[in-house]
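Researcher: We plan to redesign the surface later, but first we want a full-length starting point. Tokens attached.
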């Protein structure tokens, strides 16, 4: 599934990510000794400055920790004014993954992944989950309590979409444009 995230981020940003779909095991020829570099991902060739990722599960505290992670990352990148929008967007995508993919997986330890990358004019997030079912935008009744997540994502982002699902899952991504200062 890491390949899905790398492919989605690469397509959405135009920045090549060193994982390709043909890499069946990107760590196959890598020694797993702790690198001296502060960013372990850079040392392994799977990270870049302006990139952050974390796994999450369907447990009760997971969505809260994802939102905290997003807010902290966006603030660390000096993009505080965009923290509310990105936190809302990622919260909706993660909630969809928890509700529609992780909750039905049957194993409480099944994980989904969030990846975020900062590019020159945007922040792109990608959520990878184990469900092959594509995201479905709904038109909820005015009094419905659910069903508006992708409508919110659409309203807050400059683009969003998903990578064609396969039996191992899908990647749903969203891009928030950052005006140049």
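Model: Full-length starting sequence:
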């Amino acid at each position: 599934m890491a390949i899905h995230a790398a492919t989605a981020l690469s397509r959405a940003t135009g920045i090549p990510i060193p994982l390709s779909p043909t890499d069946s095991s990107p760590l196959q020829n890598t020694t797993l000794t702790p690198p001296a570099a502060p960013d372990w991902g850079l040392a392994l060739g799977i990270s870049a400055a302006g990139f952050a990722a974390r796994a999450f599960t369907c447990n009760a505290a997971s969505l809260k920790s994802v939102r905290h992670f997003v807010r902290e990352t966006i603030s660390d990148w000096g993009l505080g004014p965009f923290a509310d929008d990105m936190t809302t967007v990622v919260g909706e995508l993660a909630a969809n993954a928890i509700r529609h993919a992780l909750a039905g997986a049957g194993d409480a330890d099944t994980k989904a992944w969030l990846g975020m990358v900062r590019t020159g004019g945007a922040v792109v997030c990608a959520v990878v989950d184990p469900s092959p079912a594509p995201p479905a935008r709904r038109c909820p009744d005015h009094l419905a309590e659910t069903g508006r997540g992708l409508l919110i994502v659409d309203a807050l982002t400059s683009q969003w979409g998903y990578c064609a699902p396969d039996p191992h899952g899908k990647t749903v991504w969203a891009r928030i444009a950052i005006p140049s200062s």
